[in-house]
């Protein structure tokens, strides 16, 4: 096996760390791969940590001991979170989104992979310490956000279906009542997609009164799963809500169908703590 | 603005290039960001290209001229593609997947974010030169694969719905007949999610006789869109198929419900050309 120069090592380690967020990589893996001393590897990691940290893209966490190693934790700094929230507010308040009945067209936003990835990165940062083991969402529009978040947390995803499908095998189904329109519905999750007792993070695109999220929480109870966080891209201003603790990136304050105006303000995301202190956010 | 050392520059450039596949970044961006001469930036890019290439993770493409720059193209080498196909074949042939009616349970595989990302990387490599402008899929299980592919190609995603939703605004709907079970269905796509005349790449998880993919191709015709590629995670052995040109990673050759046996073989992926020649595939 060839010996690597430091420059090549830095590129390869950066690639390797970014590829598997939250996955612990033993230092011996790097030492063997590059035929280098552990002290050199540690120096390299110091350089990478410095660049990641000051660039606002995350932290390297070093775990010492026999089962130790290093892992990359995607974290954002406050300016990056503010920038995302700002962009979302601006894009969401485009009156062209207003559909009959005051619904909002969101598919373009959720089809923008760069935007979706950035939302996932911010959620992963906020829920970095949630100790969630699975990200759960409901079809259809929540799926991209759930995968982007799970990707940055190194977790699997389980998708709740609105109607049970033969391809899901045996499922657990609960009936739901939409909090805003009082419509009946059902939510199903394949028995196999969740082990009993796991900790889950719920991610969805839009929350009105919270009937769907409430339904998901109830469904999680059927699996004896513990909900360790709830994140939504946008919620609405409502007095009564079926869910208490959740993180929203934005809040739709008003949709005036006649005047064709939408008012969107930052959600409660920026009231959360735990931002890292980077210096730039390219 | 501080001056960057080469080591820090290499880490930051690697991060930046990996983050936005297929996006052209002007060399002046790097030169200004790092306060470095273009010749130094070019040297750095040479080191990064060498590591990416020999590690089988892709290529840097340099475009010269005033509108020039550099972009990262995720590409896999043949061993990496073979390894993915091999893993998929092994996992898919687990008899525990057999559901009533000979259907296969796939949600665990599609919930595995690392696996999904790798499938997306391989599709992005095969369709690297397809010049597709949008990745199109159908809800629900194709969505993660479509996003993973689009992520690696730097493209947006449009999701075809099986029933039209109010939140999609005005839609184009076509009726479909499943090629295998002759069931009727419909496929809808929001008018706004696709510009007329664009080139699209269709990605889905499972293709039997191809009725759904055929339906998507017909739907694309309604948008005057051009289908520049079709990729599925797995297909089945059938004499008659409604779709001719497509890439499959695996083929389900036989499902014996009584004996509880599944036989899965490599699809036509490895007959495609265009693999890069890396030396290792960590």
UniProtKB/TrEMBL annotation, chains A, B:
<dbReference type="InterPro" id="IPR036390">
    <property type="entry name" value="WH_DNA-bd_sf"/>
</dbReference>
<comment type="subunit">
    <text>Homodimer.</text>
</comment>
<dbReference type="Pfam" id="PF00156">
    <property type="entry name" value="Pribosyltran"/>
</dbReference>
<keyword id="KW-0805">Transcription regulation</keyword>
<dbReference type="InterPro" id="IPR000836">
    <property type="entry name" value="PRTase_dom"/>
</dbReference>
<dbReference type="GO" id="GO:0045982">
    <property type="term" value="P:negative regulation of purine nucleobase metabolic process"/>
</dbReference>
<dbReference type="InterPro" id="IPR050118">
    <property type="entry name" value="Pur/Pyrimidine_PRTase"/>
</dbReference>
<feature type="domain" description="Bacterial purine repressor N-terminal">
    <location>
        <begin position="5"/>
        <end position="74"/>
    </location>
</feature>
<dbReference type="InterPro" id="IPR015265">
    <property type="entry name" value="PuR_N"/>
</dbReference>
<dbReference type="Pfam" id="PF09182">
    <property type="entry name" value="PuR_N"/>
</dbReference>
<feature type="domain" description="Phosphoribosyltransferase">
    <location>
        <begin position="109"/>
        <end position="245"/>
    </location>
</feature>
<keyword id="KW-0804">Transcription</keyword>
<dbReference type="InterPro" id="IPR010078">
    <property type="entry name" value="PurR_Bsub"/>
</dbReference>
<dbReference type="InterPro" id="IPR036388">
    <property type="entry name" value="WH-like_DNA-bd_sf"/>
</dbReference>
<dbReference type="GO" id="GO:0003677">
    <property type="term" value="F:DNA binding"/>
</dbReference>
<comment type="similarity">
    <text>Belongs to the purine/pyrimidine phosphoribosyltransferase family. PurR subfamily.</text>
</comment>
<dbReference type="InterPro" id="IPR029057">
    <property type="entry name" value="PRTase-like"/>
</dbReference>
<keyword id="KW-0238">DNA-binding</keyword>
<protein>
    <submittedName>
        <fullName>Purine operon repressor, PurR</fullName>
    </submittedName>
</protein>
<dbReference type="GO" id="GO:0045892">
    <property type="term" value="P:negative regulation of DNA-templated transcription"/>
</dbReference>
């Amino acid at each position: 096996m060839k010996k690597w120069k430091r420059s090549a090592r830095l590129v390869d380690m950066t690639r390797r760390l970014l590829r598997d967020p939250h996955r612990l990589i033993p230092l011996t893996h790097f030492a063997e791969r590059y035929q280098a001393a552990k002290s050199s590897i540690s120096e390299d990691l110091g350089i990478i940590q410095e660049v990641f940290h000051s660039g606002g893209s995350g932290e390297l966490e070093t775990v010492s001991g026999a089962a130790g190693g290093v892992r990359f934790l995607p974290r954002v700094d406050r300016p990056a979170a503010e920038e995302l929230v700002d962009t979302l507010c601006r894009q969401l308040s485009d009156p062209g989104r207003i559909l009959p009945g005051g619904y909002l067209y969101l598919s373009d936003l959720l089809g923008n992979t760069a935007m979706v990835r950035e939302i996932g990165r911010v959620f992963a940062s906020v829920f970095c310490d949630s100790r969630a083991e699975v990200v759960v969402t409901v079809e259809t529009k929540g799926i991209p956000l759930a995968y982007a978040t799970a990707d940055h947390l190194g977790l699997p995803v389980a998708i709740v279906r609105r109607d049970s499908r033969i391809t899901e095998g045996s499922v657990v189904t609960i009936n739901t009542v939409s909090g805003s329109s009082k419509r009946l519905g059902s939510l199903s999750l394949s028995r196999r997609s969740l082990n009993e007792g796991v900790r889950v993070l719920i991610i969805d695109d839009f929350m009105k009164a919270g009937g769907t999220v409430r339904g998901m929480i109830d469904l999680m109870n059927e699996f004896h799963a513990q909900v360790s966080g709830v994140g939504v891209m946008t919620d609405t201003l409502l007095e009564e809500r079926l869910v208490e603790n959740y993180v929203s990136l934005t809040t739709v304050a008003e949709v005036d169908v006649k005047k064709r105006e939408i008012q969107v303000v930052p959600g409660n995301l920026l009231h959360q703590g735990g931002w890292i202190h980077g210096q730039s956010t390219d």
